[in-house]
Amino acid sequence: ETVSYEKYSEDWTQRRNAGKWAKFPDYGKFDEGNISLQNHGTKLWYRNIKIKEL
């Protein structure tokens, strides 16, 4: 699945400010960093993950 958004657009800003991370001023503002995969409460396996720069 691919996710797309326009950073700093009105929609992006509204969603960021309405989310649970709104109290963290740097959330969603970095242009590069790490990619994390997580799951809550059950075992999970990943296989054949490919990440390409678009």
Automatic annotation (TrEMBL):
Residue ranges constituting the 3-keto-alpha-glucoside-1,2-lyase/3-keto-2-hydroxy-glucal hydratase domain according to the UniProt record: 2-52
InterPro entries given in the database record: AL/BT2_dom
GO MF term list: hydrolase activity
Protein name (Swiss-Prot/TrEMBL): 3-keto-alpha-glucoside-1,2-lyase/3-keto-2-hydroxy-glucal hydratase domain-containing protein
Species classification: Bacteria, Pseudomonadati, Bacteroidota, Bacteroidia, Bacteroidales
